[in-house]
Amino acid sequence: MPNKTLKVGVVQQAVADNNKQTNWNKSAEQVAKLADEGCECILLQELHSTLYFCQQEDTDAFDLAEPIPGPATDFFGELAEKHNIVLVTSLFEKRGSGLYHNTAVVFDRSKEIAGKYRKMHIPDDPGFYEKFYFTPGDMGFQPIQTSVGKLGVLVCWDQWYPEAARLMAMAGADLLFYPTAIGWDLNDTDDERVRQHGAWETIQRSHAVANSVPVIVANRTGFEASPVDGDPGIQFWGQSFIVGPQGEILAKADANEETTLTVELDLARTEQVKRIWPYFRDRRIDAYEDLTKRWRD
Question: Is 297 inside a domain boundary?
Fold first, then answer.
């Protein structure tokens, strides 16, 4: 590892409208704050430039997408260079006419793009109609090499799949990052909301445990009304968090607060955990061939 410790930061924010410049400036203020606190690596939430437009299927929403490189990458690249940080962003990418992706872009202390990841698992559920907008990623599960280590960047729905985390770890990811936009269906009962959030947090902590790596999660907060008549909208549940390599919670945000998180990770301890709990040594790769099948009959 390049360092024995690494100070990481997370930005959790609400989005009020589709004014990209306003939202970028809001993110930039928090990034500057975290950089002043000594953070070398900072994560922004999923699709932080605009409202979460996937609550309905609307062809006009494709106007929100932009090429990479483009105005957003110019803005955030300059931010990473200005503050001398590694910055993980999340953008609506227009790859070509009629071809769009949900894409994370990483900058390494420079205006230049260090790497990107296109979201692989695309949901299609009431209020989360992402398959209408996003083509599944075609870049695989490859960590992005930076000055602070190899970053395994995944996006939101990817966080429910242990295969994605495992493949990133198998490729040498030192940390896992999940920019996220998830919240409650307001038609659900309070008990169901508690269960859903608990499952979300537990599955990501389990990725830390199973792969002996820290996990950093940025989720958006705030209420976003649905443009669909009769739909109650989404209350994004925030609660961004950072966990260590045994799934231990090191920092956690509130549900409804715009805030930042800062943690100094002990990467030497991460290495020690891997030596004590050698999961990769004991994997029975000779017996896992059926994992590449959709289902076992």
Answer: no
pLDDT, one tens digit per residue, over 174-201 is 999 999 999 999 999 999 999 999 999 9
46 has catalytic annotation: yes
Listed residue (136, 12, 140, 135) closest to 62, CA to CA: 135
Q: Which of 177, 183, 155, 176 is nearest to 255 (CA)?
A: 183
Catalytic one of 119, 130, 201, 224: 119
Domain containing 274 equals 5-292
CA 168, chain centre distance (Å): 14
Average pLDDT, the chain: 97
For 231, list phi and psi in degrees, rounded to 5. Answer: -85, 130
**Active-site residue (options: 39, 41, 54, 156):** 156
Q: What's the domain count of the chain?
A: 1
Rounded Cα gap, residues 205 and 200, in angstroms: 9
Contact 242, 214 (CB under 8 A): yes
Tell me, what CATH number does 84's domain have?
Answer: 3.60.110.10
Q: Rounded to the nearest 10 degrees, how much is the dihedral formed by the CA atoms of 8, 38, 76, 109?
A: -90
Catalytically annotated residue among 46, 93, 130, 224: 46
Token pair belonging to 275: 């030596």
